[in-house]
């Protein structure tokens, strides 16, 4: 019986993998086409300085995208990631100003971010609320906590030691440490999601939770720990942002969830769960970054930039909805 249940899930996972490969190849073609077009439109586009700026702009958000993608695959969503990123910055910064060394303060900041994920996971898996409502409430609560801790005033952290600031500002052979950390995180979780047996449970749970339960998978535990993982990676991103900017602003990260979810969905993660790849989500993040850089170089108003990003997200969600209906 278990074999019969697992077989369809495995077949669906193979189909999703093929679809993801097609989506990733299409994104690569679109990104290359945009780059070629912009090379003619602006002489500043194909420069190391511009590409470095683009990489820096999405590398830290890309760490959050990794967690969001895995959460979308399991069938969840997290609207609180921007608030959690900010909360990690605020907690770490406040502890540093209180006399704690920045490394310990940062570990505590990441730890409390994980606790926020655990709290959301509890309400989802034990109380029975859905991820959308739970994370929406968490977004408001956590943002309020940021304002309470800082009293609405940014924390100035210019006294952070150079060794800690190097995480966000330093480089090795002209390659920023931020990009290196991003590549390591992406490589690890992309490999685990594609190859690790334990991470197959994420796909099984997202594609058909009841069938996964019948096959012996503890789906509640899977959803709980994936929710914790998403918040933990958001906390890590918050610490890197703190090191990069040398400050902790209580309004930082507002609206970040839009870019994060958009990148994951553009990259092939389904809002219905069961499909998606880390590599695809990073390509989605890269596409948004190229679009943003192109609009800036073309001197397009920032208001139009938000509209264009919204249209890209709507198109990606529409395509995802169409493909899901076709598979159904």
UniProtKB/TrEMBL annotation:
Q: Which UniProt keywords apply?
A: Cell membrane, Membrane, Transmembrane, Transmembrane helix
Q: Which GO terms describe its molecular function?
A: transmembrane transporter activity
Q: Which parts of the chain span the membrane according to its record?
A: 21-41, 53-74, 81-100, 106-129, 136-155, 175-193, 224-245, 278-297
Q: What PANTHER family is this protein classified in?
A: ABC TRANSPORTER PERMEASE PROTEIN YPHD-RELATED-RELATED (PTHR32196)
State one Pfam family annotation: BPD_transp_2
**What are the annotated GO cellular component locations?**
plasma membrane
Q: Where in the cell is it found?
A: Cell membrane
Could you identify this protein by its name? ABC transporter permease
């Amino acid at each position: 019986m278990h074999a019969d249940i697992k077989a369809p899930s495995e077949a669906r996972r193979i189909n999703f993998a093929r679809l993801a490969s097609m989506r990733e190849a299409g994104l690569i073609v679109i990104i290359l086409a945009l780059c070629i077009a912009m090379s003619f439109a602006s002489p500043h586009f194909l420069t190391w300085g511009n590409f470095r700026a683009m990489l820096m702009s999405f590398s830290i958000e890309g760490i959050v995208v990794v967690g969001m993608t895995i959460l979308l695959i399991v069938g969840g969503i997290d609207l609180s990631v921007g608030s959690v990123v900010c909360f990690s910055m605020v907690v770490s910064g406040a502890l540093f100003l209180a006399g704690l060394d920045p490394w310990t303060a940062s570990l505590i900041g990441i730890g409390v971010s994980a606790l926020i994920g655990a709290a959301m996971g509890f309400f989802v898996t034990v109380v029975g609320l859905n991820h959308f409502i739970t994370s929406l409430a968490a977004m408001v609560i956590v943002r309020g906590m940021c304002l309470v801790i800082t009293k609405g005033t940014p924390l100035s952290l210019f006294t952070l030691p150079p060794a800690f600031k190097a995480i966000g500002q330093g480089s090795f052979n002209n390659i920023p440490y931020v990009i290196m950390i991003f590549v390591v995180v992406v490589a690890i979780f992309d490999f685990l999601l594609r190859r690790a047996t334990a991470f197959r449970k994420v796909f099984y749970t997202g594609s058909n939770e009841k069938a996964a339960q019948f096959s012996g998978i503890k789906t509640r535990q899977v959803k709980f720990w994936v929710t914790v993982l998403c918040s933990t990676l958001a906390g890590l991103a918050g610490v890197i942002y703190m090191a990069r900017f040398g400050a902790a602003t209580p309004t930082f990260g507002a609206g970040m969830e839009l870019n994060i979810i958009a990148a994951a969905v553009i990259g092939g993660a389904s809002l219905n769960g069961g499909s998606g790849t880390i590599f695809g989500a990073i390509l989605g993040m890269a596409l948004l970054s190229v679009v943003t850089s192109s609009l800036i170089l073309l001197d397009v108003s920032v208001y139009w930039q938000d509209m264009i990003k919204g249209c890209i997200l709507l198109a990606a969600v529409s395509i995802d909805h169409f493909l899901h209906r076709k598979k159904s």
